[in-house]
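stage 2 :: seqdesign
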Protein backbone atom coordinates (compact mmCIF):
# COMPACT_ATOMS: atom_id res chain seq x y z
CA UNK A 1 0.00 0.00 0.00
CA UNK A 2 2.69 2.49 1.06
CA UNK A 3 4.91 1.44 -1.83
CA UNK A 4 2.08 2.09 -4.29
CA UNK A 5 1.45 5.54 -2.79
CA UNK A 6 5.13 6.45 -3.13
CA UNK A 7 5.07 5.21 -6.73
CA UNK A 8 2.02 7.40 -7.51
CA UNK A 9 3.66 10.40 -5.83
CA UNK A 10 6.82 9.96 -7.89
CA UNK A 11 4.73 9.69 -11.05
CA UNK A 12 2.88 12.89 -10.15
CA UNK A 13 6.18 14.64 -9.50
CA UNK A 14 7.60 13.72 -12.92
CA UNK A 15 4.35 14.70 -14.63
CA UNK A 16 4.31 17.97 -12.70
CA UNK A 17 7.85 18.73 -13.85
CA UNK A 18 6.89 18.03 -17.45
CA UNK A 19 3.81 20.27 -17.22
CA UNK A 20 5.85 23.00 -15.52
CA UNK A 21 8.51 22.85 -18.24
CA UNK A 22 5.82 23.01 -20.93
CA UNK A 23 4.15 25.98 -19.23
CA UNK A 24 7.51 27.75 -18.90
CA UNK A 25 8.28 27.20 -22.59
CA UNK A 26 4.84 28.55 -23.50
CA UNK A 27 5.43 31.58 -21.26
CA UNK A 28 8.83 32.18 -22.88
CA UNK A 29 7.14 32.15 -26.30
CA UNK A 30 4.20 34.38 -25.36
CA UNK A 31 6.14 36.92 -23.27
CA UNK A 32 7.72 38.87 -26.20
CA UNK A 33 4.33 39.10 -27.91
CA UNK A 34 2.69 40.38 -24.73
CA UNK A 35 5.50 42.86 -24.17
CA UNK A 36 5.38 44.26 -27.71
CA UNK A 37 1.58 44.54 -27.52
CA UNK A 38 1.96 46.45 -24.24
CA UNK A 39 4.46 48.83 -25.85
CA UNK A 40 2.10 49.43 -28.79
CA UNK A 41 -0.78 50.16 -26.38
CA UNK A 42 1.42 52.62 -24.47
CA UNK A 43 2.37 54.36 -27.72
CA UNK A 44 -1.29 54.67 -28.72
CA UNK A 45 -2.41 56.08 -25.36
CA UNK A 46 0.33 58.71 -25.20
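stage 2 :: out
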Amino acid sequence: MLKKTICIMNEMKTNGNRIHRLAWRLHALTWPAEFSAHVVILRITY
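stage 3 :: structure notes
- The helical segments are 2-45.
- The longest helix spans residues 2-45.
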